[in-house]
Amino acid sequence: MEIRPESIRSILATDCGSTTTKAILIERRDGQYRLVVRGEAPTTVEAPFEDVTRGVLNAVREVEELAHRRILDGERIVTPQTGDQGVDLYVSTSSAGGGLQMMVSGLVLQMTGESAQRAALGAGAIVMDVIALNDGRRPHEKIRRLRQLRPDMILLSGGTDGGDVKRVIEMAETLAAADPKPRLGAGYELPVIYAGNRDAAAMVRECLGSRTALSVVPNLRPTLETENLRPARDAIHELFMEHVMAHAPGYKKLMSWSPVPIMPTPGAVGIIVEKIARRDRLAVVGVDIGGATTDVFSVFQEVFNRTVSANLGMSYSVSNVMAEAGLENILRWVPFEVDEVGLRNRIKNKMVRPTTIPQSLEDLVIEQAIAREALRLAFEQHKALATGLKGIQTERTISDIMSQTESGATLVNLLELGLLVGSGGVLSHAPRRAQAAFMMLDAFLPEGLTHLAVDSIFMAPQLGVLSTVHEAAATEVFERDCLIRLGAALAPIGTARSGHACVGVELVSPGRAPERRQVAFGDVALLPLPKEGVSRLTAHPERGFDLGLGKGKPLTAEVLGGVVGLIVDARGRRPFQLPGRMSERIGKLRAWNQAMGLYAREV
Amino acid sequence: MAHAYTPGLRVSELVRVRRERRLPLKGEVKVKAGEPVEPASVVACTELPGNVQTLNLAAKLSLDPARVPESLTRPIGSRVHRGDVIAQGRSLFGLLSQSAHAPADGTLESVSAITGQMILREPPIPVEIHAYMRGVIAEVLPGEGAVVETEAAFMQGIFGIGGETFGPLSVATGSPDEELTPDRLGEAHRGRVIVGGCYASHATLMRARELGVAAVVVGGFDDHDLRQLLGRDLGVAITGSEELGLTLVLTEGFGRIPMAERTWRLLVSHDGEQASVSGATQIRAGVLRPEVLVPHARRPAVAASAAAHPGLELGSLLRVIREPFFGRIGHVIELPPELQSLETEAQVRVACVEFCDDGSRAMVPRANVELIEV
User: Which of residues 53-92 of A touch B (CB under 8 A)?
Assistant: First the structure.
């Protein structure tokens, strides 16, 4: 069906998450697209319902009730809109049922292996494992692993065009010997994408063509110096629809409702993040912390990267955050004493009953402490993968040698970071926006001046998929109804003794008296900003502290308005350290919480 | 959420339970439709393909990969024993002869003229699928397995570890709020499914394992002890394959939580009867909960259907599943349609609940309650 953007008056968009299905209704009013209402219902891809459309219909019914308009005719979405019934366009994303789970393979782990991983992650997949010639496992161990994991899809890469063929075929033979079966349904062949040395394509086809649903696309690493991920990503999206979604419970029906292919949720969020970075010419980090996984997206030096931490999340995976971060790391953010046995049980109870929410303030504080650690770990993993290409010979100057840079260094430069956007329940639904800002600050530790925002009600996925067919509607809703600007953080790099002078700031906002503040090392200060418009910031760091222009050099910059304000974070960077003694740490946490106005009462 | 459902764990005196018993690969079905089966009856069997060994013959024999196929001393498909010569090559103008030997018993599966790699598959691994519960074969899945059906008392737990097992039920505490302590267990409990009260410690489980107890069903367990039991922190709730020597089913959750009265009464009423237990839990994909079922045939049962229940209503009996009222049971006395503010300042839908134990009332987020089916 051809979509003519100018004729679209109303749009219904859903995102089938692993826990909740979210529906939004967008209408064109006075020539502008605006969010009208949002509804949600538990996702029903799993037993006892096993039909994703049940949850979609439930979420849409909530939208109908809230918007006082009919969208459904029985169990069918009415399109196009007639009078005030139905909608002109329906689109959806999905990460239900564990999302898209892939295995990728390359010849060398750090080269084609990493490129293949980036391609799969960028397309919205969870990478279950990376198989490579040098991954340290013997062939039979790789074969056993391939059999055990039952991925939805495999991306096979390897070699540069014109390079070694033999090793690529060896990987294909390993794959053929494993004869892996797809995760969903036994009645179809496992989709395999070959994106390696083009000279080996015919032989790979001979080896795998009869036992898998093989697609051959251009090499994702045609030369050592170039990466061409787009064809592999597009093939992943296509096969996701054709093979994986078509076998997930209820998805055939869901696909028939929308003229636009259903996109993996993270793939859609990535589209939005890339668009902001391009439009505002900024280095951007976006994070989406869900129940099962945490996705991190970044654009640095115009290079887009996405990683997913498959087992870091706030419900299904909450216990894994504790396992990976360690209890002490979670507790370091909690400003009261907690009994360890009780806390462990509390976290496990959240895991077994993942849809519950904190009722007491103490419970909220603990949940937000866990979120800090989940975000921190996910960002660590992102930094390790968002790198330049490894294995490239580069000409190095003396200064390169002095600064110890090397090929494959992380692209993530926190001083360069212009905007940090958070989404996902624990950030988007934090009762106070300052809580979301402070969680992001503690987890990501941005340096210098960084703007902060949250996705108001987590609709980036829906807007991402919408932008592929109606960019104007997606952008208008994103700016006006989705993105909530929180303000900015100013964090000097450096360290000193607690209480010593660190930075002086002056903030001039239109129509307000200038705000001047001296902030001592170890403290946090919050300066109000107007909700909209631009303020002028002048910051004078003390000797030994750097705001990005050199130690002791003042910074003058424009700060966009936001609902939280300008957070002056003088707690130090490189390193950032919390006090070791519990009483001292609790005292500091309470002081920061108070400075930020985080909670309704002291906890 | 207008049409939200609040899932509750199923606790039923008599339901028809069907369990699909399917092989991981096609194989032979050993039963016929209508045939009665016991938990240990073999329903189907098959052989899983053996592990694969790869052998780089080109490197081993110093040959060009293209010449490797002709170096084989036995054709593809041959069965070989460990140490058998499988390929021979000559180098240095035919003066030096080199041999390659089979690294294990198995079958020569394939050889590549591009990489010079040979694949040897080890002997198949036999797999049997058991009936798991007493019942009859309701349906045969040709080449794949069968569906076993029974009428049973049935309860789901919230979390479990360990696989499928069976044995007579044996109630070992006097009430649902008593702890199952090690001294309550004895030789008579060997091979039995022990029903405890509110809690079992790591020491109790160790004692149970030592005695050869088949399964322990209790209200709660400490995560701290779970870590000790598994030797690691359990990150994601996908369980069932642990080899602990017994199966553990928690009916309520982590901590010391009295077993729900209804669950307790059901289990006590079947004391001494043969039960089948599975600890397998998968919360993320598939929502698989652990279960205890006691097959019997006292009266016609209704199918354990997946029908959605109506959701929260005035008078609904529910259990709170998160602090600060965790584990308490009460009735819904009011369902305000407007969002209400919690202590956290979150605006959510709530239920006003009157607790059964002391008649006190509280406001609880609807997300934090589960229905108790009656």
Answer: 58, 61-62, 65
